[in-house]
Every structure is written in structure tokens, then in C-alpha cells.
Fold:
Amino acid sequence: MPPHRTIAAAKQKKMYAVHFHRAVLLFCITAVCSVTVLIYIQLPPGFRLVNFISNDGAWEGDLRGADFAWNKLYFNGDSPPPAVLRIAVFSKKWPTSSDPGGMERHAQTLYAALAARGHHIHVFTSPANPLVAASLSYTNPVIHFHDGEPNNWQYEKAWEMFEEEDSHRKFDVIHTESVALPFRLAERLPNLAVSWHGIAYEIMQSSIFQDLIRKPDEPQSNDFIRTLNETLPKLLKEIRFFSKYAHHVAITDSCGEVLRNVYQIPSRRVHVILNGVDQRTFVDDPETGLKFRSQIGIPQTATLVLGVSGRLVRDKGHPLLFDAFSKLKVRHPDVYLIVAGTGPWGSRYRELGSQVLVLGSLDPVRLKGFYNAIDVFVNPTLRPQGLDLTLMEAMMSGKPIMASNFPSIKGSLVVDDEFGFTFPPNADSLYEALELAASEGKERLRRRGLACKKYAAAMFTAGKMALAYERLFLCIYNESYCFYP
Structure:
């Protein structure tokens, strides 16, 4: 090295570490953003086929070759299944609290619907509070809580319970929610399907979006650097071991593309089945909405009522909504925001005054009132992974949605501009979307909501989801069921 470039060994080592760290960080951001852009611009035709749903043979063939959501196909729910299956399920948690998480709610909805179709469901899950577990009276699905501390998942204990049950009578199909069952065990099971509710590729994007909303004077979080440094090796590890699972269920169209193109899973082993919600609970009921408004103190003079629900935490985008609504309420004194859920941002919202009503966690009856009381449902999430069930619940209730423009949302939910508003995940863009909604008026928003209701009723019901999973499980059980119709 020339003399004028020579530096002390210690300083050189330190500078190398700094540059290496920056290079790794830049690589993470570039890789994630580049592939994300490709997914945005290379959406397959199925993403845009709003009218694809049909019962007249519009599509036929081997379902394993379908690269669109199976929800778009017609399955006859009026007839009993051609075969009754014995299905084992591995789920890290089962809903035992009054405020379960999204994956727990999904699991309960799916397996209850499959059990109602006559299939025999056995769920292997983590311990619940003994008093709560004793109060459960499930006969189908049968819930197997392994020993240990409540909500402390130990797959080895669940696997032992599974092997004992399987020794009495073999299971036809095995289903694991994400990595509840690790690949070291899953690779032994050719009749296994895994549903992915969040993968490292999407988690890395979420960390980046959360860092991008930092204020100019806000220091970069050590957690952000740590998460990126941990997530890249995790991503590479996932790409290597995901192929050990026989069948993959992507719960969004964009996740299906990532599994095929980034994780390199053969297309015939990737199946897109969107989540569903209970269509009996989430219904369009304007009268209930008016009563709910009156109960919580929304005046009849309100020109626009917005709603947000779920966990009130940073990664759900609440810093964005807080900043955007802080500006909106000044310009529009008759616009209100209803906040349903719990978390640290609840107290912050209360600081915004009388135009914001923070209700806390809601039971199903009040949740129905909440959805029917609002004009637009807002979900400013910073998490690209999965599909938030609250968006489907709002659409089913006849409400337009306003959400971050991630591929998962644009590709599976807001597939038509009539369904609502999307925005880049930053406060200024959200504010512009809020102003647009305020300018449209209630009649226009109502028409949007009715379009959402029609689409959701065709795509996002618990029955539609269960029938799609049933057909996949039948296909795994016997190849003859893989051919549609």
C-alpha cells in the first residue's frame, strides 16, 4: 500500500468494521427494496381479476398449478365433503383470552368451520391458564394443551402428544401454522402443509419502514440495527429450510410470489389461500352503527367518522395516524376518529382531544357496532407481512378501507380503486388520503363500502376460506381431488 494510504492497523480495523456494517445494511435495504419493486410491477394477471370468481367452469385444471388465490374459485359448500378427513394441527397458541391475536383468531375460525363440515380436527398447542382450559368444552376440534407454563410453546411436547394420538389412528393431513412445527420434524411428513403468517423477508421490510418514519431529531434505534443484522441470516436460513415443508400456503398473493421467486419453492407446492372472517358476525347494519355512535357520544353533525382497531403499537403505524389526524382535526372540526384496541398509543390518542374517542378492547357485539358506526376504516400498518383481519372485517361490514400500499394489500384486498384509498407509509401521504376521504362525502363513501361488501362476501368469508383449505387437504390426501372443478 502506498505510504500516503498507510494508516495504523487499529484504525484500519475499525474503519473496515464500519464500512462492512454499512455495506451489509445497504445490501439489506437494496435487496429487499429491489425485489419488492419487482413484485409490484410483475403482478400476475390473477391479481387484477376481480370478476374471476365463477361456478361455470371459467378455470379448470390441476389446482397445484394455480398461481392465484383459491378463494377466486367456486367450491360447493352445500354438499358434504367427498371424504371426511382426520386433521392434525400445530398452533403455538389457541384463543383463550378476550383479546386474541390475529393468527389465533384465524386458527379458531378455520378449524371451527372445518369441524362444522364434519372433519375431525385435533389441535396441538401451548398450555392455557388451567382455569381457562378447564372451562373449554371442545369436542371437535379437540384441543390438546401440552404441559408447562401458559403460552410457552414447546414443540417437542406437542410432537409427543401428536405421536401418541397418531399411533391410535393415522392422521390424513397435518397442518402447521407458520413454524409451530420445525422443519426437522416437518420434513418427515409428505402429507403436511404449512401456512405462513409472516416470513423474514417481510419482517426485514417492516423494520425498514419503521426506521423511515423517524423524526429528524430522533436517533436511530439500536433495535433497528440489531433486527436487520439478525434478519438477514434468518432470511438466508429460511430460504434454505423452507423447501423441507411439503406444501406451502401463502395467505396473500404477494407472499406466494415471494415464496416462488425469492425462496425458490416449486410453484406446484405453493398455494394461495386468503384468510376469511365470520360472515355472521361482521355484517352491514346501519341501524346498529347509529346506535353505537349515540352511545359513545358522536354528534349527529359529524361529517366523517374514521375508525382504527387492533394493537395500538408503533409497527401498526399509529405514529402516522397520530400525526396525520392531528392536522386533519384542525381543518375539519366535525371529523371524528374512533380508536378500538389497547396499547401504548391509546394514551397518546387521548391527547388529541374530544374528536378522538379511545374505547379500548371491544367484545364481538361492540365490535360490530364499531364497524357499522364508521365511514372509513384506517389501517396505517408498517408491517407488510400477512393480511390484517380487521381490513376484511371492515369490508365485510360495508366500509371502504384506507391502508398502506404494500403488495399484500394492493394485490389481495384493494384490487380495485373503488374499494378505498392506499398511500405510501408516511404521515404526509396518509394526511392527503384523509383529506380526499373528507372531500368525497358520505354518499360516495357509502358506494365504495357497498362495493367492498360485495367483494368481501365473495372472497373473505370463513366458509370460502374453509372450503379452499378443505380442497387443498383433500388434494394432499388423494391426488384425484387436485383436479378442478
About this structure: The chain has 17 helices and 15 strands. The first strand starts at residue 61 and ends at 62.
